[in-house]
Amino acid sequence: SQFRGIFKSACVACASLATGDLITQGFEYKQGELQEWNKIRTLRFAVVGLTLHGPYFHLGFGRVERLFGASSGFKIAVAKMAVSQITLFPIYLSLLFPYLSLLEGKSLQAAYEKTAQVWWPTFRNGALFWPVVNMVNFLAFSPGTGRVLCVSVAGIIWNCYISAVNFKANKLQQQALQGEQAVKE
């Protein structure tokens, strides 16, 4: 059923986003940027995977499959990749960063500012990463388990990047706030 598929995708994305954040925090800890594991941060990424990422891409790629069919020929794979990159990805990023910001307790203004800061570089980097992953996925795997596994592994790598981008953007916002407070004093 449709609900079962959405739920399965949501659970996979929950694990993928949380895993990406855990790996990233491990690197940040080794570099001295973190003192300890931020469990709430990982939980936020898990919530985003469960409530946004999984359902959004399950439904979005389902529409792409219905539009072009299950065929995995080169021309169809290019069309699927282009449509998903042009339609699904920009909208997702426009939802992702504000959602993370609001879960972090930021104001709408701060969420907008962070999204404006990170959206283009993240989109640009994703436009290099995801078309390659999607072409491999559409050409090498038929719909179902193989595609889910391929995207899940690539997703963990991508989610490490997203976690790092979000962490750095938060750090810059915090430094700017501290600078404004110091000027007022």
Automatic annotation (TrEMBL):
Pfam families: Mpv17_PMP22. Coiled coil: none annotated. It comes from Vannella robusta. Keywords: Membrane, Transmembrane, Transmembrane helix. Belongs to the peroxisomal membrane protein PXMP2/4 family. It comes from the Eukaryota. GO terms for cellular component: cytoplasm; membrane. The chain crosses the membrane at residues 82-102, 148-167. This is Peroxisomal membrane protein MPV17. Its main location: membrane. It is a multi-pass membrane protein. It is found in: Membrane.
